[in-house]
Amino acid sequence: MNKKTIRDIEIKGKKVLVRCDFNVPLKEGEITDDTRISAALPTIKYLLENGAKVVLCSHLGRPKGEVNSKYSLSPVATRLAEKLGQDVKLAKDVTGESAHDMANTLKDGEAGLLENVRFDPREEKNEDSLAVELADLIGTEGIYVNDAFGTAHRAHSSTEGVTHHVEHAVAGLLMEKEVQELGAVLENPEKPFVAILGGAKVSDKIGVIENLLGKVNTLIVGGAMANTFLKAKGYDIGNSKYEADKIEEAKRLMKEANEQNVEIVLPVDARVAKIPEGTELTAETIEAAEHKKVKLYKQEEVQEGKAESLGDWNILDVGDTTLEMYANSLDGVKTVVWNGPIGFAEAPSFAHGTENIANYIAHTKAKCVIGGGDSVAAIKKMKKRAIADGEHEKQFDNIYLSTGGGASLEFLEGKDLPGIKALENDTKTITKNESQGKVNTNQYEM
To answer: pLDDT higher for 380 or 299?
Structure first.
């Protein structure tokens, strides 16, 4: 990419402030999944091994600008120390006396961690005063490194603001990898190229669909967002969740797809649950409800008495015929992007579609880039099961699991991400591209 990375600058003996994404899930104070910590290790180890004094910072959860022990990064510091095989000092504050004491006592090759940056109400407001204080922790010769792709779409004090107060602001190795993997499927995907989009809302993915229509051969739509497309096509969806104000958008997108010869694959059958009006949709209420499988019909067929109305039934997953259609669409594919669950995956009875998509992907040789918590979790589950059954882990080398949910979506939309845009340009890369007569329309292209 045309952004400098930690490999492009001298770091020995320098204080380096590294914005990581340690927003890990916790249960009773214990980390239940340390994937994001592991993902940050290459950058941290590189800095330590090359003699930097490393000051790490991150957010965790949503403490709403207040100190809350529930969201302390103490468990992260402990897990980091275990993985690095050395002590990781934890400051008691973000930019206060404890943070300065920690940063000032670090020796070359040592690391410390600031307390949760969202304990400071200025962080999410991107207030310059906090950015200045963060920069002061590393001094005038300090270096800022953004390795938190998962927060790169947010202009906060620790992701964007601080870059204006340091001499060097560069990308970490995880940031570089994320941009490389996501950029490849946008800039030069091998065809056939299939995008799978699920989740609750069409509104969350309109920009992604628009940006992908000129690149993909097939667009598979699942999850509750498929209901809006079905409604737009005149299907009876019963009491299912959909976005009434996005019906015209769905019609427009389907029209554009047709004009660009892109096939949109929508469900033709579904797994449904009978949920009383006004009942909150949770895994518990759904599992307790009555379930059945149904074929989907046009509203006019229902009105003419040729099909039974879904009434107060809710579409919560795709059916078996739809899964066969999905499988056919993925047969022989060379590139796959997947973001969002295919059904209400939190409820085991309606995780069938998501698990099947994960299974298809786990056994394809296509280049796959997966983003979004539920999608990534499904692939991890499939990978763990396959390895337990004796399959080699290298089987999954074709699958890249992005650490960024919202960030990966905005990247796929083609948006500039503030946390990346603010980093220092690599003029060597720009000059090389210009000398070869190449104009890079995506500033993050690797």
So the answer is: 299
Looking at the DSSP bridge assignments, the partners of residue 294 are 270
HEC readout, 257-310: HHHCCCEEECCCEEEEEECCCCCCCCHHHHHHCEEEEEECCEHHHHHCCCCCCC
Catalytic amino acids? 36, 201, 373, 406
Average pLDDT over residues 70-74: 97
b vs e for 213-249, b when ≥16 Cβ sit within 10 Å of the residue's Cβ?
bebbbbbbbbbbbbbbbbbbbebbbbbbbbbeebbeb
* Residue ranges per structural domain of the chain: 6-171, 180-411
In this structure, the number of other CB atoms found within 10 A of the CB of residue 80 comes to 24
Average pLDDT, the chain: 91
CATH top-level class for 180-411? alpha beta
pLDDT of residue 114 exceeding 80 = yes
Asked if 293 and 269 count as a contact pair (C-beta separation under 8 A), the reply is yes
Is the fold of 6-171 the same as that of 180-411? yes
Is pLDDT of 379 > 90?
Answer: no
Whether the pLDDT of residue 9 is over 50: the answer is: yes
Token pair, residue 77, equals: 């510091």
Going by C-beta distance under 8 Å and a sequence separation of 6 or more, which residues neighbour residue 236?
A: 296, 297, 298, 299, 301, 302, 307, 309, 310
Cα(268)–Cα(330) distance, integer angstroms: 17
Half-sphere exposure of 8 (CA within 13 A, CB side): 21
**Three-class SS string for 13-77?**
CCEEEEECCCCCCEECCEECCCHHHHHHHHHHHHHHHCCCEEEEECCCCCCCCCCCHHHCCHHHH
Residue 296 falls in which region: left (phi positive, over 0), alpha (psi -120 to 50) or beta:
beta
For domain 6-171, give its CATH number from 3.40.50.1260, 3.60.120.10, 3.40.50.720, 2.102.10.10.
Answer: 3.40.50.1260
Q: Which amino acid appears at position 135 of this protein? A: A
Helix (H) / strand (E) containing 336 = strand 335-339
174-183, 364-373, 386-395, 433-442: least confidently modelled range: 433-442
| pTM for this prediction | 0.87
